[in-house]
Amino acid sequence: MGEMNIYGVYVPMLLIQATAAYAVLRLLILLLDKWAEQGWIAMPSVFYLCLYIILLGCGHWLCAAVL
């Protein structure tokens, strides 16, 4: 998988991907909260967890394809 050297500190690539996925998730939550309040999303916590795992997987796949 690898790591990235940031000013002499080795940071795991998975940590960077997880942080990026969380940032995207927080933006999506702002949009999807309206649906959760209206009842379109039955269990928002489980839905957001699954969405985070999907975003993390897509980010990992993207980094693996590029690097």
Strand content: 5-15%
Count of DSSP helices?
2
Helical content class: over 70%
Query: Any low-confidence stretches, pLDDT <50, length ≥5?
Result: none
Structural key phrases:
single chain, 67 residues, mainly alpha, DUF1656 domain-containing protein, cell membrane, DUF1656, transmembrane
Question: Can you walk me through this structure?
Answer:
This is DUF1656 domain-containing protein. The chain crosses the membrane at residues 6-29, 41-62. The protein has two helices and two strands. It has 67 residues and is mainly alpha-helical. The protein has one domain (3-66). Strands 1-2 form a two-stranded antiparallel sheet. α1 packs antiparallel against α2. The mean pLDDT is 93.
Topology at a glance:
Elements: E1 3-6, E2 9-12, H1 13-38, H2 44-66
Antiparallel strand pairs: 1-2
Helix pairs in contact: 1-2
Keywords: Cell membrane, Membrane, Transmembrane, Transmembrane helix
Protein name: DUF1656 domain-containing protein
Transmembrane segments: 6-29, 41-62
In short:
Helices cover 73% and strands 12% of the residues. By secondary structure, the protein is mainly α.
